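Predict structure. Input: Type 2 DNA topoisomerase 6 subunit A, 363 residues.
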Amino acid sequence: MSDITDAKARERLIDMAAEFYDQFADGDIPHMDVPTRSKSNIVFDEDAGVWVYGDRTSTRSANSVRGARKLLKAVYTMEFLAQQLEENRSSTLRELYYLSESWDEEEAQFNTQSESNKLVEDLEIVSGVKREDFHMRPEESGAKVMGPLLLREQTRRGDRDIHCQEDVGQGGYQIPNDPDTIEFLDNDAEFVLCVETGGMRDRLVENGFDDEYDALVVHLGGQPARATRRLTKRLRDELDLPVVVFTDGDPWSYRIFGSVAYGSIKSAHLSEYLATPDAQFVGIRPEDIVEYDLPTDPLSDSDVNALESELEDPRFQTEYWTEQIELQLDIAKKAEQQALASRGLDFVTDTYLPERLDAMGVI
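Output follows.
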C-alpha cells in the first residue's frame, strides 16, 4: 500500500509552490530543476537492478516568456491538485487538460494533453509523490488479469473479495488505476504471463491455458499502463511468482518488454516502483521467425531505425538482445504473436509456450 497520505501529498505541493515565493524573496528568477528525460541520462542502479535517471537536469526557468508560461501552468496545476486532495476527489489526465480551459489566466491553459501529461510527470519527479497519490488517473487502459488469484480490492463502496477465475467472465479481472488498493489473499499460481495483444490473451483463455498451467495471464494492452506494471511487480515481489513477457516480434514490442523489466525512459523516476528486473522475454523472438517459418511482414524504415536505436539503448545492451536484434536486421522481417496460428489454433498453448517455458525453467 502507498505510504503517502493525502495530507502529505498536499503538503509537498504547497512546499513546491512556496519555493517559488522564496526565490522571488531572494531576488532569484523562479525556476524548477527536473532530471533530463532522455536515453543518454539513463543509468543502471546496481542495487535495485533497474534503469533510473542520472545526474543531468533540465531547468524550467522564468527567465524567458516561454519558461514563465511553463511555471505559471505548473503553479495552476499545483493549486488544482492541492484542492482535489483537500476535497478527496480524483480526476483523469484527460480531464485536467480540459479543466485548464476554465482557468482564469489564459496563459496557464494547456495547448495539448501531452503538455499537461508531461507537467504532471515533472511534478511527480520534483515532489517525489506519484500521480496516483495526487488522485490523478489515466484513461482506462483495459488491462485485465485471468488466473488462480483471490484478492481484496478497496473501493468507495467498501472492500470486495474477487477470484480472478471464479468471479469474473471471459474478460477477466480489470486492473484498477491504483493497484496498491489490492490485497492478495490467496493464490495457486505458478507464474505470471504478460501478454501484449488482446487476440493472443483471448486465445490463451479460450484454450484454458491459465487453468491448465496455473498461470496468471496479464493482458498488457499494448504499451502497458503504470497500473499494469505496478501489479506485475507486486505479483513478483509479494507472491514470489516468476514473470515472463510474450509480445509480437518487432522493435516496438521489445520496448514493451523493456518497460516491464527495466522501466521506461519517461517514468525512470518510478523504476523501483514499477519495473520487474528479473522478468524474462518469451517471444516472439527473431529466431522463432526462422525456426518456425512464421508468416511475416518486411521491416519498415522506422522498424530498422528502432532496432538500430535499441542496439545503443542501455536497457538492451546484453549478449542476448544484441544477437536477436542483429538477426532481425539480417532477415529484415517481423512477425505478430498470432502468426503462430499458421501451425494451428492450439499450437501456441499445446506446443510453443509449454516448450519455451519449460526450457526457461518456468514450468
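The mean pLDDT is 88.
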